[in-house]
Amino acid sequence: MATRKPGTTARPGGGTQSRDKGTRGGRPEASAATGTTGERQGKQPARQAKPGNGQARAAGQAQRTRSAPAAAAAATGPGVAATPAWLQWTTWGLSLGGLGVSIYLTIAHFNTSVTLACPATSTVNCEKVTTSPESYAFGIPVAVLGLAFYLFLAVVNSPWVWRMTWPPIRWARIGSMVVGIVFVLWLVYAELFKIGAICLWCTSVHVITFALFVLIMFSFAAGYGTTRDPALA
Q1: What average pLDDT does range 195-204 have in this prediction?
Q2: CB-count burial class (<10 Å; 0-12, 13-18, 19+) for 150
């Protein structure tokens, strides 16, 4: 009589069939399936670790942000102290205001039908000032000189010209303001001690000129538009 080995079953016809402990009906055991699932889960984080589109865009934005100061420095020029935007627009606005008043005074000077909107009192009398002998300088009406002066300032104090670093422009701006403030002081002296009256429109031009003188002298002292030593920056 034949003996059967453990783990075998009798098969009709006298044969035996071995039973594979690792399979059940030809299918993998749960342990094998678990191992395969673990391998897949282990590979999944590796795929998720790749940077996505959002991370790429953030990296590109950071790179552009870092390069922005370099682009601004290249536009101004190496070692050049850029003039602040507030100073550019303030001086230009004041220059345009002075130009507007100068145009009004020039029209009133040559057109007798235009009357200046100004009270006529013992202290304030625009007509008395604008028709006095002191309303002429070097044979030219002061209103015309003011018009030419502020037309020049409206150009050199524009933001586009402020960005130019050509030294003659800078010195022409400073020189014109020095001449302008000296002329304003003479006009104030003439109104107070020679004419004996004040013109409100002329006074507004004087105030604008003084404000521009202070701002442009400040820009000169700060060194805006000049080349600096990179070692001292």
Answers
A1: 95
A2: buried
b or e along 58-71 (b: 16 or more beta carbons within 10 Å of the residue's beta carbon)? eeeeeeeeeeeeee
Q: What is the pLDDT of residues 76-127, one digit of tens each?
A: 445 667 899 999 999 999 999 999 999 999 999 998 888 889 988 889 999 9
Interatomic CA distance for residues 170 and 174, integer angstroms: 6
> What pLDDT does residue 14 have?
47
Location of structure tokens 């409100």: 200
Angle between helices 200-222 and 167-189 (to 10 degrees): 140
Structure tokens at 40: 């897949």
Give the β-pairing of 136-137 and 140-141: antiparallel
β-pair type (23-24, 15-18): unpaired
d(CA 206, CA 199): 10
Helix (H, G, I), strand (E, B) or coil at 9: strand
- β-bridge partners, 28: 23
Tokens at residue 65, please?
Answer: 């942000």
Q: Which two tokens mark 173?
A: 């701006």
Residue type, position 140, single letter: I
- Tokens 């006009």 — which residue? 187
